[in-house]
Amino acid sequence: MLSTPSRERVTVEPTRGQRFRAGYLSRSPRIISAFAALVGLLTLIGGVLASERERVRAITDPLGIPATAAAAAVSTVAGLLLLRLAASLRKRKRVAWVASVAVSSVLVVAHILKGHKVAEAAVAFVLLIMLVTARSEFRAKADPASRWFAARVFFQFVAVAIVYGVAMLYVNADKHVIGHPSFGARLQEVVYALVGADGPVGLTGERFSDIFHGTLLGFGLLTVLVVALLALRPSEPPCWLSSNDEERLRGLLDRQGSRDSLGYFALRRDKSVVWSPTGKAAITYRVVQGVALASGDPIGDPEAWPGAMDAYRQLVDEHGWTPAVIGCSELGATVFKRECELAAIELGDEAIVEVDDFSLDGRPMRGVRQACTRVGRAGYDVQVRRTRDIDRDEFTELLRVAAAWRGAAVERGFSMALSRLGDVADRDCVVATAHQDGVLRGMLHFVPWGSDGLSLDLMRRDRSADNGLNELMIVRLIEGCSELGVRRISLNFAVFRDAIERGEKIGAGPVLRAWRGVLMFASRWWQIESLYRFNVKFRPDWEPRFLSYPATRDLPRIAIAALEAEAFLVRPHVLKRLVGRG
């Protein structure tokens, strides 16, 4: 019997040219983005200097339009569009690629119509060729529609138009501006020109006046058109967790929830979820400012984490989002680095109290012990219960009082907050309440951390209550953990704890002291130092938490997205109503 000979697999090494092309294509969005921004900036500068006057005369003559004004309008509007599109090109957006091809094609045609503009036509043509040859790299979908994005584009376009117009009046002041008008008058002239009207500044030379007013009118029309298109797009639904996804996540938490104290916060219903192919792991996230912000470790079996991370990476690549993970553990940061090539920096430390090791005895616990004794003598009584054991009428009153204590302040939290109380699905949560003479004065809310742990979600108290009430509630909770079957408790998260702790020690270097000074300054608005001081009273174990990010240049954007998600940066309510996000 004849056997079929086996074929050996032959590996063909790529040529040097193929390697160069592959390397270029992988970096082409960044290169093209930078080149498009440069072309747009130089085009705007050329418009300010008013040196390009007749590049579209062949088109404008039959229409009776002053060629110089039309030429300046075409070039500057194209420059503005390229500047705005450059950021989206960097994120590989397909819509931005199509628009950039159209804009660069218009520039090439405009330059060719005036034959002596060969160099400028060549630059625009190079940009067009770069876009066409790298078209396969621009596959990302457009971001979800948002009226806030339309408002942001409006302010960006108007700001550029004002800067351009004022610069044009100052650069050409000696030849074409009558007298010495004030800055306010020049600004008023620019604003009037955006809507096609004459302002208070007198201009000499019909050609310069046509260029100035025609260009700014083009800016105004472009702004209205672009903003209208963005504002009238059908909006996509915000991130939300479906009931089916929530049920599946709860199943994973029942089996693997003890791994991460932040796991239960994945059940926030303002998050979306991406699953591993096997369904044994998942990553929850929210998109903020173009950042797909995940929090904590993936939910589920660590062996299935790579599958969930691969799905997450494909999702952010498909939409051109920036991946980021806030508050992951050391294991999570390690796997994200291996699977998604995300670097990591330590964000701070989580305070973990082991119930069996906790004691009020000894000098280090003197402050907590004295606070509990003082508040206890003031007549405070603390109850610790599962939410399923609290009567619905009583819980309604708890919610009312807690909302009154918060007042008009925004509910903060994303990575370590559930942002809901008393939901029927959260029956295993724990509430500690403090009453004085029958009046509710304080409340703590904890979510489950596996079957034998709790993680602090919410801490509220009456501002007129005695100092030390929170310490008393935590101590009473720890004392009642044996009945609850709880062995460990996760308290607050201390941001940059190590820097605060080491920066105040003798011998700390100037850099560390300076960084601690920055944190102390920021503590005037955000509870950085105060949370650390509160946590350290309970002598906890410190578990580091990390921020995972793709590149250092992305950190400012990720930081802003994280601060907005955690509600430390809040858009004004009036502005949110204007853009339809209130």
Give a description of the structure.
With 582 residues, the protein is α+β, with helices and mostly antiparallel strands. Strands 1, 2, 3, 4, 5, 6, 7, 8, 9, 10, 11 and 12 form a twelve-stranded mixed β-sheet that branches. Strand 9 and strand 10 form a beta hairpin. The longest helix is centred in the first third of the chain and has 34 residues. The termini are far apart. The N terminus and C terminus are likely disordered.
Give structural attributes.
12 strands, alpha+beta, disordered N terminus, 21 helices, disordered C terminus, 582 residues, 12-stranded mixed sheet, elongated
Radius of gyration computed on alpha carbons: 31 Å
Uncertain residue segments: 1-11, 51-68, 573-582
Give the averaged pLDDT, no decimals: 80
What is the CA–CA distance across the termini?
A: 79 Å
Briefly say what this structure is:
This protein is of the alpha+beta class and 582 residues long. Helices cover 51% and strands 15% of the residues. The longest helix is centred in the first third of the chain and has 34 residues, at 16-49.
How do the helices and strands line up, and which of them pair or pack?
Layout: H1 16-49, H2 57-63, H3 67-90, H4 94-113, H5 118-133, H6 147-171, H7 173-176, H8 183-194, H9 206-232, H10 243-256, E1 272-275, E2 281-288, E3 291-295, E4 299-300, H11 305-319, E5 322-328, H12 330-340, E6 343-354, H13 366-377, E7 380-386, H14 392-406, E8 430-436, E9 439-448, E10 453-461, H15 469-479, H16 481-484, E11 488-495, H17 497-503, H18 510-522, H19 529-536, E12 541-549, H20 555-565, H21 573-578
Helix pairs in contact: 1-3, 1-5, 1-6, 2-3, 3-4, 3-9, 4-5, 6-8, 6-9, 11-12, 13-15, 17-18
